[in-house]
Amino acid sequence: MSKHRGGPGPARFRPRRTAPAGTARPKRRGPLAYWRQYLAISPFYLIFAAFSFFPVFYSLYLAFQRWDGMGTMQFVGLQQFRFLWDDPVFWLSIRNTLVIWVLSTVPTLFGALTLATLLHSVRRFKGFYRIALYVPNVTSIVAVAIFFGAVFSNNFGLVNAILGVVGISPVPWLSNPWLIKVVISLLMTWQWTGYNMIIYLAGLQAIPTSIYEAAKMDGAGPIRTFFQITIPIMRPIILFTVIISTINGLQSFSEPQVLFASNAANANLGGPGQAGLTTLLYFYQSAFLNNDYGYGAAIVWAFFVLIIILVAVNWRLTTRGRKA
Amino acid sequence: MTAVDTARPATGGRRTRRPRGLTAHIILVVAVLVSVFPFAWTIVMATNTTQDIYKSPPKFTFGSHLLENIRHVLNTIDFFGSMLNTVIVATVTTALVLFIDSLAAFTFAKFDFPGRKILFGTLLLFMMLPLQLAILPQFILMSKIGWVGMLKALALPSLANAFGIFWLHQYIQNGVPDELLDAARIDGAGFFRQYWNIALPMIRPALSFLAIYAFVNCWNDYIWPLVVLTDPGHVTLQVELAQLNVGHTTDYSMVMAGVLMAALPLVIVFSIFARGFIAGATEGAVQGS
Prior knowledge:
The structure holds 2 protein chains of 2 kinds. Chain A is mainly alpha-helical. Chain A is 66% helix and 1% strand. Chain A has helices spanning 35-62, 79-85, 88-121, 126-138, 141-151, 158-166, 177-206, 209-217, 222-249, 254-259, 279-289, 293-319, and strands at residues 65-66, 74-75. In chain A, strands 1-2 form a two-stranded antiparallel sheet. Chain B is globular and about 75 Å long. In chain B, α14 runs antiparallel to α15 (252-285). Chain B has 15 helices and no strands. At the A-B interface, α1, α3, α4, α5 and α6 of A face α1, α2, α5, α6 and α7 of B.
């Protein structure tokens, strides 16, 4: 019963017949008989078609054009992608995105699993902990990014002030290429740990206590129980969070955009050395600041391929050994 | 739960359990402090002057400059104007998402019709796609119909909330018994009556979860308003907030007062509905009834 919402296609959708066996009114054939149903789903599908379905394919079409959004479109074939391949800034943005993703996802998921396990084991203040730990996820990225910018500010930030009191000289958090990524990752970790914790907690609560009692009877300690029972049962849920984190984590845009907003007008987007230039930020810059629509479309599509590859890799890693 | 409670004294596990529980509480409290700290520090900064905060060692207590900082924010950006824009868009979007999604979810969960599987499958597939793929064409579309810079351009794309349908679908399948719908059908209730009078009242908890989810998402959205609201006088709160941060000599106390003012409504709303929201999220994540 612990099937999860984002998991692989569940085989449990059993469509109910409109007419139950009791009411002997045979359904007419032909789609027209179902006009009410089609009418009911049509608002969604009309908007979906216009603003999601069509745009996704249109952006693929755009990726093969040269267009500034004003003049005439010019078909250039694979030229945009060839240019992308040789574009050092694009590869820099991919590297930045991957580093930020790893630096944020790993602590987020480990922290979330630890907190969820702890929270599951305690009996008092459960509701309070859940809410207090989830609150970061409800705040806006803009507010959080501004906050982190202030706290990690090179000259006067709180972190450096505290380091100063202890006698450590100021650390250039927002100008060192590595520390920039660390700050962005910390920000994302702070915001997403509570979210994943809630999901893990839901999974833990679905595990019947009798399994744990049986394990205890067999003399398994808490650590052993955790690795031999909790982790295997939670596997589908862990898979879900890994995939959601991959999709979310690779989409870091607002964090660096707001953090280095003072440079938004310059070519130096993404902070000093463009160390915070993520792929989406580069897409934003190309499409909306430089009005290079074709190139922007090529960037998002290349980025999409990257997401697919990473989701597939993660899928393999997380499900490995399952059928052994 | 009760099984554990009764089993514990019998096995004498209490002595070994107690310290572990204490450690758990200590770690959880530390985690809570970390997750709440930014809010507290934002308040400290917003109530002091920037000079006080930049001192070494910095001032750690609340100051008395909050009103002054707020006035400064109101003079720098159109705070209430952008907030009103955000409230309008978020409210309208949420209401429409609830209606559109619940109607579609009800249909998918309880009725069979030709093309049902394919349509639902498309929806699930698109749920996985990064929305950024669509941003550029969405913008082009909006400029073609002349909606760039308008609030309706902001709301429209988010009305097709695939996650909402999927989530409500799961809930309706388990939460609305077929027998009840059959009974209503025998009494002569048509399709839309079954939806409105039977399904909707039964899925109220799921709807309130989705309402908060959609509202918060809309309130906090950044990239799309940034792209589509080109007119500086007509932006949302988040875009306006980011404007505060621009410039090399940032008055952080003032900026933090703005951050605080922007976060406060949402944090209040969330605290009121938090219990139901988190219970709803938990329920949706794990199918068990």
